[in-house]
Amino acid sequence: MTHQKKDITAIVIGAGIAGLSSAIRLAAKGVHVTVLEQQDTYGGKMGVWEQDGYRYDTGPSLFTMPQYVDELLTIDGKNDVTFEYDELENIGNYFWEDGTQMTATKDVEQLKDEFLKQLSEPKENIDAYLADSKIKFEITNHVFLEKSLHKLKTYLSWGTVKSFFRLSKVDIFKNMNAQNELRFNNPKTVQFFNRYATYNGSNPYQASATLNVIPHYEFGFGAFFPKKGIRSIADALYQKAIHLGVIFQFSTQVSKVEKIGERYIVNGDTESDILICNMDVASAAKGPLKNFVSSKRKKYEPSSSALIFYWGIDREFKELDLHNIFFSSDYMKEFENIFHNRKIDNDPTVYIHISSKCKVDDAPVGCENWFVMVNAPYVAGQDWEKMINEARENILIKVSKRLGTDISRHIRLEHKLTPELIQSKTGSYKGALYGSSSNDRMAAFLRQPNFSSGHKGLYFCGGSVHPGGGIPLCLLSGKITTDIIAHDFKLY
Ligand code: FAD
Asked: How far is the CA of 112 from the centre of ligand 1 (A)?
């Protein structure tokens, strides 16, 4: 490559958080970056919706690993974008049908006391589990999450070799539930830890026990809430990108990509040396990148999707906190329905996120903004209207019973996000929340690599790309991608 740094241009397709992460990193290295986004705003799945004094973060609600955002915001040594967050003392409130209730705290001693008091789970079981989760993190983080799995260089490093010697400890051949059943006395504790599979849209009865690493993110590093809400992560990244000179073209859907010589021509009029695809790889393979991506990428086994109701509630509930989980009575049946029968269970686990518990101006005084989510199957020709209406009824019955009041009487306004809408708004294949499913133990290796081996200058980032979905991993995918670009284009 003979380019001077100042000549190098890049186009990023999509202003999701992975696209923003890549754009910031490349711009900080002196590349001229243009982001083309089909929607009229940035953030992708990290959306926002407001009405009548209620504000909702429409996508992600749980924020871990804030250091990845901090790193991006100070990448050029300037602290010119304000982004503040608090660490949560109480991570979540958990409710079971039989009246059992517990609070998961950041403080591990308190957490163990709570498991013992509410679920009679011996403290040593929790200690052993969290220690194992930490070991899994130490073994997998540098190899599986921070580097490309498709570059020989990754396997030649001493860190990777060490990790490979310890691979037996990540329990790749067991499933999460099987390992959790061996570790805990109380089935409710098993259910509590099985739920972490949903953090990347997996099925705990199928996904490898390696995913038992996920609790370490929450209990080892903590859970956080941005002072201005989750959407402020995207706001801050967008501002940083603007400060670094990134150009954004909104309401610009990329429908055509050509290559002439070594340059990419997008929509017939915008040229660049580097093209980064942040749109879902299956949608790209069927659409603008059909001549550049193998046809086998046109489909993949997606992660689960979700159905979310945004309810403006006209009163406060003291027993609820920022994150609340109302468990189903038969977790195995729930996942069987989501992943095999492709339907929402009639007793779904209900997650209620209330950002007004931390950011009081997210709801009118004396009211709460409920984000009510159930796990849903990906889009596969279902009768969604029927399933959504039934799910709404089942959610209302379940939560009303547990809170001892008819919730339907307190809903002042309603808005919803469905798997089909997630698919149409963000181009997410079949409405998957987290790209491809992690249920297969080889999932990490099957995901789209961060670069194209056939087309120089073409790269990928985002939830459908290595290392996968969720805020921390999408931000890391932007890093892995730009590290490879820096090497290929000698951007040192
Ligand atoms: P996206 O956000 O999907 O961005 C892709 C962008 O590309 C979009 O803006 C899209 O409009 C654009 N695009 C697509 N096609 C084109 C085209 N042809 N031309 C131009 N632009 C195009 N993660 C967590 O960490 N914690 C959570 O609690 C959590 N909860 C979630 C709840 C919900 C309801 C959802 C939907 C997701 C949740 N996630 C959560 C997952 C997380 O939001 C995603 O993994 C992450 O935001 C994906 O970012 P991305 O950059 O890969 O893609």
From this structure: 35
The answer to whether the beta carbons of residues 303 and 435 sit under 8 Å apart is: yes
Angle between helices 471-488 and 17-28 (to 10 degrees): 30
Residue 305, ligand 1, Cβ within 6 A: no
Ligand 1 atom, smallest distance to 20 CA: 51
Cα angle 89, 216, 213; round to 5: 150
CA 278-282-286 angle, to 5 degrees, is: 110
Convert the pLDDT of each residue in 420-435 to its tens digit. Answer: 999 999 999 999 999 9
Instruction: Please say whether the beta carbons of 415 and 51 come within 8 A.
Output: yes
Cα gap 42→395, rounded to integer Å: 31
Q: For 118-136, write each residue's pLDDT tens digit.
A: 999 999 999 999 999 999 9
Indicate the helix (H) or strand (E) that contains 34. strand 32-36
Which residue's alpha carbon is at the smallest distance from atom 33 of ligand 1? 59
Cβ atoms of 450 and 458 within 8 Å: the answer is no
- Report the C-alpha gap between 244 and 12 in whole angstroms: 15
Is the Cβ–Cβ distance between 367 and 54 less than 8 Å?
yes
Q: Give me the amino acid identity at 284.
A: A
Q: Alpha-carbon Rg of the chain, whole angstroms?
A: 22
**For residues 258-281, average pLDDT:** 97
